[in-house]
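Morning!

This is the sequence you dropped in the shared folder:
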Amino acid sequence: MTNNNKLYPSVPRDKTNNYSEALAKQRRDFVSQQLEKPLQHVSHYSIKAEDTAGNIENFIGVAQVPIGLAGPLLVNGEHAKGAFYVPLATTEGTLVASYNRGMRVITAAGGAKVTVVDDAMQRAPVFIFEDARQARQMGEWIEDNFSTIKSQAETTTQVGQLRNIEQYAAARMRYLRFNFTTGDAAGQNMVSKACFAACEWIQANYPYPGLKRYTLSGAMDTDKKHSQLNTLHSRGKRVIAEVTISDQLLRENLGVSADMLFKMRQISNVGSMMAGSVNNGAHSPNAIAAIFIACGQDAANVAESSAAISFVDVDAEGNYYLAMTIPSLIVATYGGGTALGTQKECLQMMDCFGEGKVKKLAEIIGATVLAGELSLSAAVLAGDWVSSHDSLGRNR
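The structure's back. Tokens below.
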């Protein structure tokens, strides 16, 4: 039998010091030799190779994504108060220009009112029994012993707090959805560790027969996947951004009326419903992904964060009300990739780096999503959606 490992050499690494510039260069030279192509751009960066420990393995360089600046954006939040300039990392032409336009109109209208209405990160273990009645009995025991389970979980973390445990029954399984608050961290690793400690205690102390085993995740947390459960119950921050804009302001700046935007939303709602979309808005993931990349967030969390609920109305005076609800916005201002060089600088542009800033960042993201929703909706109606891409987004 052929040993394929001898045919395909392994990526160079050092078990004792894998985060040195020398190792990074060795790996770049290795891949250049393997592909017979030089790496001219990957090797240009300002961060130290040593600083990437904990963020990446087998470091070779940096993906340079252009960053544009949009704003000012006036935010009337409970944590974000004032005008902000928002860094957006993207390679899509017209994106920054579109958000900038929406921000200008929202600011002229008096700003976006943004509220974080819920905050929880989940891990959802499943306990397997011999039959459904035994599983039901465990559910009652979990409720009776919640305070002890909470204290066991919180022995592993200084900031994480177990808020509640949802329960779901199916066949002979009991699915438990642990909801934690996680401070300024996104918290997936934090809640995994805390939930493991709680589950080990449950398994060791459960007094009734029938418990066969448990799995730390029964997939009801839907980590880095969308689910309707997260849309309803939230994962991360549930953020609602609102603005009321006069018909005159819309006509003067966007070339559309409040009535036109309102009727368009009714039509697009039908299309979203027929498509089975998780988002009846225009393009909220564009803002979220661009800010995530610029600010050191886990880009895969766009999967959950992409869900959104758009709502519009026109009042008796003809003013246009627009609200965007982001039910599962997973963000951090501490830990993860937030302390890397460019990511830290982008967070600092919005005064959102470090402890006590995560809800401020969530509110700014909510307001940015609102700006993009307004601008693109108007562009589609006014007919300049395609023309703007032709003029700004054609890099061939």
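Headline: The longest strand covers residues 112-123.

More detail when I'm at my desk.
O.
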